Amino acid sequence: MLGELPKEIHHTFTPPPEHPNVALSLGFTSLVAFSLLAFLVSLFKLKLNSELIKKVGALSSFLFFGVILSTLGLYVWFWAQGNLLDTLKVLALMTLPALLVLKKFFQAHA
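The chain above was modelled as a monomer; its predicted structure follows.
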Protein backbone atom coordinates (compact mmCIF):
# COMPACT_ATOMS: atom_id res chain seq x y z
CA MET A 1 0.00 0.00 0.00
CA LEU A 2 2.64 2.55 0.96
CA GLY A 3 5.53 0.75 -0.57
CA GLU A 4 8.70 -0.44 1.07
CA LEU A 5 10.04 1.48 4.04
CA PRO A 6 13.71 2.33 4.09
CA LYS A 7 15.74 0.06 6.31
CA GLU A 8 17.84 2.87 7.73
CA ILE A 9 16.87 6.44 8.51
CA HIS A 10 19.53 9.12 8.25
CA HIS A 11 19.27 12.30 10.28
CA THR A 12 21.17 15.47 9.78
CA PHE A 13 21.80 17.65 12.81
CA THR A 14 22.87 21.24 12.88
CA PRO A 15 26.41 21.75 14.13
CA PRO A 16 26.72 22.98 17.73
CA PRO A 17 27.16 26.72 18.13
CA GLU A 18 30.69 27.99 18.48
CA HIS A 19 31.73 29.23 21.91
CA PRO A 20 33.87 32.31 22.40
CA ASN A 21 37.55 31.99 23.13
CA VAL A 22 38.29 30.89 26.71
CA ALA A 23 40.77 33.72 27.21
CA LEU A 24 38.13 36.26 26.17
CA SER A 25 35.59 34.77 28.59
CA LEU A 26 38.06 34.71 31.47
CA GLY A 27 39.17 38.26 30.68
CA PHE A 28 35.62 39.54 30.71
CA THR A 29 34.82 37.69 33.94
CA SER A 30 37.93 39.02 35.66
CA LEU A 31 37.14 42.55 34.47
CA VAL A 32 33.64 42.34 35.94
CA ALA A 33 34.93 40.82 39.20
CA PHE A 34 37.63 43.49 39.50
CA SER A 35 35.07 46.25 38.90
CA LEU A 36 32.77 44.83 41.57
CA LEU A 37 35.65 44.54 44.01
CA ALA A 38 36.77 48.11 43.28
CA PHE A 39 33.22 49.34 43.83
CA LEU A 40 32.91 47.56 47.18
CA VAL A 41 36.31 48.79 48.36
CA SER A 42 35.49 52.37 47.40
CA LEU A 43 32.09 52.07 49.07
CA PHE A 44 33.64 51.03 52.37
CA LYS A 45 36.54 53.46 52.01
CA LEU A 46 34.23 56.44 51.51
CA LYS A 47 31.92 55.23 54.30
CA LEU A 48 28.83 56.00 52.29
CA ASN A 49 25.49 55.82 54.04
CA SER A 50 27.07 55.54 57.48
CA GLU A 51 24.51 57.96 58.92
CA LEU A 52 21.68 55.73 57.73
CA ILE A 53 23.23 52.70 59.39
CA LYS A 54 23.53 54.62 62.67
CA LYS A 55 19.94 55.88 62.42
CA VAL A 56 18.29 52.60 61.46
CA GLY A 57 20.61 50.18 63.21
CA ALA A 58 23.25 47.81 61.96
CA LEU A 59 21.06 44.71 62.04
CA SER A 60 18.27 46.27 60.00
CA SER A 61 20.77 47.63 57.50
CA PHE A 62 22.49 44.28 57.04
CA LEU A 63 19.14 42.51 56.71
CA PHE A 64 18.02 45.09 54.13
CA PHE A 65 21.13 44.61 52.02
CA GLY A 66 20.91 40.85 52.58
CA VAL A 67 17.39 40.79 51.13
CA ILE A 68 18.56 42.71 48.07
CA LEU A 69 21.61 40.50 47.59
CA SER A 70 19.62 37.29 48.04
CA THR A 71 17.11 38.41 45.43
CA LEU A 72 19.92 39.27 43.02
CA GLY A 73 21.51 35.91 43.82
CA LEU A 74 18.25 34.20 42.95
CA TYR A 75 18.21 36.00 39.61
CA VAL A 76 21.79 34.87 38.93
CA TRP A 77 20.88 31.30 39.85
CA PHE A 78 17.91 31.42 37.49
CA TRP A 79 20.11 32.75 34.68
CA ALA A 80 22.85 30.20 35.29
CA GLN A 81 21.00 26.95 35.86
CA GLY A 82 17.53 27.35 37.30
CA ASN A 83 14.16 26.96 35.73
CA LEU A 84 11.15 29.20 36.07
CA LEU A 85 9.06 27.02 38.39
CA ASP A 86 11.85 26.46 40.93
CA THR A 87 12.75 30.15 40.86
CA LEU A 88 9.14 31.17 41.47
CA LYS A 89 8.88 28.73 44.40
CA VAL A 90 11.98 30.18 46.05
CA LEU A 91 10.83 33.72 45.31
CA ALA A 92 7.46 32.97 46.91
CA LEU A 93 9.24 31.71 50.03
CA MET A 94 11.45 34.81 50.12
CA THR A 95 8.61 37.31 49.66
CA LEU A 96 7.15 37.46 53.17
CA PRO A 97 10.49 37.75 55.04
CA ALA A 98 11.66 40.32 52.50
CA LEU A 99 8.53 42.42 52.94
CA LEU A 100 8.86 42.31 56.73
CA VAL A 101 12.52 43.32 56.64
CA LEU A 102 11.92 46.09 54.11
CA LYS A 103 8.93 47.42 56.07
CA LYS A 104 10.94 47.55 59.29
CA PHE A 105 13.88 49.21 57.52
CA PHE A 106 11.79 51.92 55.88
CA GLN A 107 9.73 52.58 59.03
CA ALA A 108 12.93 53.16 60.98
CA HIS A 109 14.30 55.32 58.15
CA ALA A 110 11.25 57.59 58.00
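The CA atoms of residues 36 and 99 lie 27 Å apart.
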